[in-house]
Amino acid sequence: MSEVNLPSFVTVVFETEAMEDEFGNILSEYETLMHKVEFLLIDKGIRKCDVEHIFPETLQQQLVLLDKAGYKYKALDQVKHFLGFSHYHQRPNGLFDSMIFGVVGKRNEDLEEFAKGYYAGDHRIQGRLLGYPDCCINAFIDSWSKKHFDPIVDIAERTGVNNGEVRGNPLLNVMLRYAGVRVIPFLPCTFTCKNAEKFAEHVLDIAKRENKSVLKKGLWLLSQKLEWSQVNGIIEVKVFNVMRIITAGYTSEPQKILFIPTYDASKLV
Amino acid sequence: MSCLYCFQRPNLKRPQHSIIEFKKDKVEKALELIQQSYCSAYNQKFDEIVFHGGEATIVPLDLLEEEFSFFKSKGLKIGMQSNCFAITDKHVELFKKYNVTVGCSVDGFPDINTLRGFFDEGKEDTKASEFYRKKVLENIERLQNEKILTGVIILLHKANASDDAKLDRLIEFIKSLKSIGVTGGRLNHMYPTYPLAEKYALTNDELFHALVRLYHATKELDVRYSPFDDVQRALTGEKNIICWFSGCSYYDALVWSITADGKIFRCDRALGNELPSPKPLPHTDLFYSQARAIALIQTELKDDKYAHLHRGGCPAEAIGGDWRRPSAFIKAYSKFFEYMEQEIKKVMPNVKLASDYPDKIRYIQMIDSGRKYNMWKGDFD
């Protein structure tokens, strides 16, 4: 099996016109909602930091917005520009195709600690400051060390796979994150992890207050049966009867998992 | 009428249209959207639409005229791909009135055109089929005489290209077409989209053998058939070649299909595999990044010298039905690229063909960005 290097991209294709009408705009609205919620998690003390990509052309506006909201920002790196989703940062060819990657928080010491962790390549320090559960950080470190950059199969195997199927909590469904739909901003150790579920509950508490209707639709999407597969380094997620998400993968190893959510999370809202 | 190998098979899930309705306002909107996407992708406007089916000549004549008139008023050239069976005097009048050009789908003389005809769940109405096979030849001649015919599309399959005897007949057919003035068209391989049709598809060895024989025959007859020109152009570094060598992204294909009620779908080849889904507009990064071709070059086609030239072939006919894999016929085409490379080098031994370019991914990125490959220096200008 060999590594595959593709330019980052995300393409979403809806199964029917009706589904496109229903969810076409929801994806970006949901992503915007979660972006805001992730910052609010800092305010609530659930986490100390969040990470943020800033475009050089809007650097000043974005920094002013963060400052007005009471956040501090520390730039850490200049990375290759991507739209939608990328498994890891790539080196830019120059300013024209770059973004500034940095950390956001309320306290300078948290930003400094995160920076130390980032430059040392210490995922544990970074993960803890971002509020991620230790069990999920450990699982991520294990997968990452094996160069499993999108370790869906690892998560499924830890959860328990039966005939290619895995059952899990829709709140921990991270297979739609390429299109911006997710509850937890990290990869869980299993699709049934109690600590990750607790984090998800904090997210829901805040998101409900921000935009209930968008949240409900996003949760409905996360509660649909889906097939995640990687073939020749291209990932395709088939959310049955709704949409397909296609994005860059990382390995020539064929992988396939059928995810069956155990309940309808939209009923939580 | 049907083809035994057609991807529009019985039981294929399709939108149900009991009445054909031409929704002019919606089609107009669809055209505008496509024009915007086309302009942003290619810096020019598209100027041609092609009616295809099913079978476009079964559309009631008054409706067909309304559609021709509409597209003509939009300044578009109109083409039609037809089985040329049900063409009447009225059709010919309409074609002439609106300058419609017609391509005919036919697989040879009646004795080798046996997969096209009247079939009901595989059982043939022999009399009706014989009538069709005779009629289509008459109509080809008529459309040619009226200067309406642009060429023929011949599908290569077990009934017309699997051995030398059949190929002899097919070559005779191409010769007979030339004798009435038809000097070109396409030789497409047939690909099955359902198990019952698999027995009609050529093997890679058969297809390669057919391509070589037909290449030499068409060269000798001085007629121009795809994919021979396309393979030569690809080898010499040209960008504009047939879609299945151009890096199709399946969901975001190179062509758009519009239904009579204004819905936009992707290429009709891809629609044979599953329920039609809306095509994303404008083109997405899946299309622009050439992700499928670049992925294949690093994986299943990493040892294929010609992978950057055929880009894995048509994803609708991919191995195992998974669009991320190469065409099931890519072995035949890779071998044919090699054959044509040798043919070109016989007459131009000093050129450095695009197949010699060392970095296949860079080649795709450079040629897609509009750079010209110079085969005299073996690099981009």
Keywords:
heterodimer; A: 269 residues; six-stranded mixed β-sheet; 21% strand; globular; B: 381 residues; alpha/beta; TIM Barrel; 2 domains; two-stranded antiparallel ribbon
Description of the structure:
The complex is a heterodimer of chains A (269) and B (381). Chain A has 9 helices and 9 strands. Chain A is of the alpha+beta class. In chain A, the strands form 2 sheets. Chain A has a 6-stranded mixed sheet with strand order 1-8-7-6-9-5. Chain A has a 3-stranded antiparallel sheet with strand order 2-4-3. Chain B has a 6-stranded parallel sheet with strand order 2-3-4-8-9-10. Chain B has helices spanning 24-42, 61-73, 89-97, 126-145, 158-161, 164-179, 204-221, 228-235, 268-271, 285-288, 291-298, 307-310, 330-347, 360-368; strands spanning 2-3, 48-51, 77-82, 101-105, 116-117, 119-120, 123-124, 149-156, 184-189, 224-226, 257-258, 264-265, 373-374, 379-380. Chain B starts with a strand and ends with a strand. Chain B is built from 14 helices and 14 strands. Chain B is of the alpha/beta class and 381 residues long.
